[in-house]
Design a protein that fits this description.
Elements (H helix, E strand, L loop, with lengths): L14 H4 L4 H6 E10 L2 E6 L2 E5 L1 H4 L13 E5 L5 E4 L5 E5 L7 E6 L3 E7 L6 H14 L2 E7 L7 H9 L7 E3 L5 H4 L11 E5 L6 H9 L24 E4 L5 E4 L12 H7 L1 H7 L16 H7 L5 H16 L11
Parallel strand pairs: 8-9, 8-11, 9-10, 11-13
Antiparallel strand pairs: 1-2, 1-4, 2-3, 4-5, 6-7, 12-13
Helix pairs in contact: 4-8, 8-9
Length: 332
């Protein structure tokens, strides 16, 4: 629950949102931030109060602009209906598992994303790359957080593997059950700041949230001992208040993250491969058997890891496949 003396700035309100308001909206509407979304109703917080509204039932919002966690809404004081979603700073989304032609909104207006992975057999460079591509695509600052460092004798091996993905990538190794160990993460969680947690199930996101909140209110579950894989704990996208004044978004674990329109993110995370591709003899080189392929030459010379190239090619094919969202069937 929020405090009665809570301000909009405490919730993350900035000039980016204030500048969007018209004169009438300033007089007759109040801005609120979406704290959680579940079953057609959303919990919101504004200056000094919490509330629950039902924008879907009220029909005040167009069908293609439903709010997601972290959004800012305008609520008409006269009708108590949500009138519109304010323009976002950024939006996390993925291709819908139910319908690949559609996008699923995940969270909006995030300042930093903690990409969480565990120091065990479930650690995956390929999965980290997917999350990094998503973060770079929408311009959110990423920090890789490696959990369960207390369960391995060589946490530095996992940290080195993560840092090798991208030059200058910030990597923090923590024991999520030790508040002193996670204290360094508070630097990104100041007043009005929003941090999203991304990672597959069982990596310890909920444990980290509990440690940063100094609370055990969020349920956690043990991983399976045979493969280190976790069970889903978080089922609702929800914002949690921190002692430092920031907000945490503990998102449901997403093991299969299908990218959607992420060309810029791919170019940034895999900039070494993107630069090599520009020096190929042919502009439409598929980087297979064509003569003069700079990428294949780099692999042969040992300057480029083939597995990294294969992951890049897989993500590129996936991203290209997302471009025509509603392809027409061609007769055989």
């Amino acid at each position: 629950m929020t405090s009665t003396d809570q301000t909009l700035a405490d919730l993350g309100w900035t000039t980016h949102f204030a500048d969007q308001l018209s004169g009438d909206e300033r007089r007759f509407c109040r801005p609120v931030r979406v704290m959680s979304v579940h079953r057609g109703k959303i919990a919101v917080s504004g200056a000094g109060s919490d509330d629950v509204i039902s924008p879907y039932i009220a029909g005040a919002l167009p069908s293609d602009d439903h709010p997601t966690v972290g959004d800012w809404l305008l609520v008409d004081d006269r009708t108590q209906l949500a009138t519109r979603v304010l323009g976002r700073i950024n939006l996390f989304k993925r291709r819908s598992p139910a319908d690949p032609r559609k996008d699923q909104m995940i969270a909006a207006n995030v300042d930093t994303v903690f990409i969480v992975a565990s120091c065990n057999q479930d650690f995956s460079v390929a999965r980290l790359e997917r999350y990094l591509v998503m973060a770079r695509e929408i311009g959110v600052h990423p920090v890789v957080v490696l959990t369960k460092a207390d369960l391995t004798e060589t946490p530095e091996v996992f940290a080195d593997a993560a840092r090798a993905i991208e030059p200058g990538l910030l990597v923090e190794t923590v024991n999520g059950r030790d508040p002193a160990s996670v204290a360094g993460l508070a630097a990104w969680c100041g007043i009005g700041k929003t941090v999203a947690f991304l990672g597959s199930s069982g990596v310890g996101k909920s444990t980290l949230v509990n440690a940063l909140r100094r609370s055990d209110s969020i349920a956690t579950q043990p991983v399976r001992t045979n493969d280190g894989t976790g069970r889903h704990t978080t089922t609702v996208r929800e914002m949690h208040r921190l002692d430092q004044g920031g907000w945490l978004l503990d998102l449901p674990g997403m093991r299969e993250l299908q990218l959607s329109e992420a060309a810029a993110g791919l170019a940034e995370v895999f900039d070494d491969i993107a630069l090599l591709a520009q020096t190929c003899r042919f502009a439409d080189c598929s980087h297979g058997v064509e003569p003069g392929c700079a990428i294949q030459a780099a692999i042969a010379a040992g300057d480029l890891d083939r597995e990294r190239f294969d992951r890049w090619r897989k993500l590129t094919v996936e991203e290209n496949g997302a471009a025509p969202r509603y392809p027409k069937r061609r007769s055989r």
